[in-house]
Amino acid sequence: MSFRHLPSVDAVIRAVCAEQPDAPRELIRDAARAVLAQARAAIAAGSPPPDLPALVAAVRAELAASFAPSLRPLINATGVIIQTNLGRAPLSAAARAAMQAVSEGYSNLEYDLAAGERGSRHVHLESLLVRLTGAEAALVVNNNAAAVYLALIGLAAGREVIVSRGQAVEIGGGFRIPDVLRASGATLVEVGTTNRTYARDYAAAINERTALILRVHASNFRLIGFVHEPELAELAAVAHEHGLPLLDDLGSGTLIDTRQFGLQAEPTVQASVAAGADLVTFSGDKLLGGPQAGIIVGRRDLVGQLRRHPLARALRVDKCTIAGLAATLHSYLRGAALREIPVWQLISTPVEALQRRAETITAALTAAGIPARAIACESAIGGGSLPGATQPSAGVAIAPVAGNATTLAARLRAGDPPVVARIVDEQVVCDLRSVFPMEDERLVTAIVAVYRS
Ligand SMILES: *Cc1c(COP(=O)(O)O)cnc(C)c1O
Fold it and tell me: Model-level pTM?
């Protein structure tokens, strides 16, 4: 046994402390112990004992790993533009600049500059949202799940909420409409059948305990065939005949008509407001393309009621979100959303532009001796918008040289920057629909690095 020749923990700690005097001693001690344990296991397995410089280098690497951020940027080569797992909407330059500007120092977050007294954080977004959606009032909270929860607690706690059986669904990430209703203290009254629900089903379920009618946009699945749901305007008519509000949870929602890109129609917020929904809820970081937020627009009295609810304080957004969301909304107001907001830049990129980039990337990879091929593919939009719909795209298919496509994909994810790609027919496919042109070079470098190592 050559454990005797192994430097002591103290010797390793002293050497590392001399090198990194600012690093916390406990971290160095834990890293040194872990490295020495590995060394002992390697010696027991027959390896020669490492010397002090080798152990110090190993501790240095351990420390670097514990100082590295856990949350970091990556290249999304899945083709899915809005993916919750990958951080949803990338932010526009204007949004990022606004968030930085407001976070560097102080701001008038809740301060009325004209009056020189306390103001409200809600004023910064409300007029923009009112102008863009046609609603009377608006309120922004932490995310859309919070928006729905606040609306239900504020308007329906202890009473009944009518939902179509086909809409009592799970949105994802554990957000189930029946559970949210229960948590808000409201009672779910399901009407109709899974595939067909009529306006008269809602009308028949209304009684003196009914608080509101809830419509939930089916954002992650599509029923096809023998199906029926009433139009929103029909539902609004039923609700209003009985003096009840209609709450429309759009999920993604959009301010821009998606049909101009050859996609199906994702419901617009403006259309829901115009059809008579009394409150409409949607996410800030899905098709809107802004920071994480939940947006509630609708009738002034109802929005006011929610704003005054004690829970509104617990779900409120911070100054960075307000600044980023306001800048994003300004792009819509100026008519510059397609040009300035990354989600729309990606959606509106013509497939020919993606094909040209796929060929350029393929040429660079082939020149480096990597078996790559430019291919045509289809990508989903994601983020609970346009379920089942895809858009023509282009990508690069890479064949694994050693091992299989799964190990190649894993090695791409382990790179710097990590690349998350798709596996199709035992090949790794980098779909360029969700890759920004300025990332192409880094994508090539990352793939080449994996093949060289
Ligand atoms: C995404 C979604 C939600 C949840 O929104 P978050 O912003 O993720 O909290 C709620 N309802 C629907 C219909 C959705 O699609």
Answer: 0.93
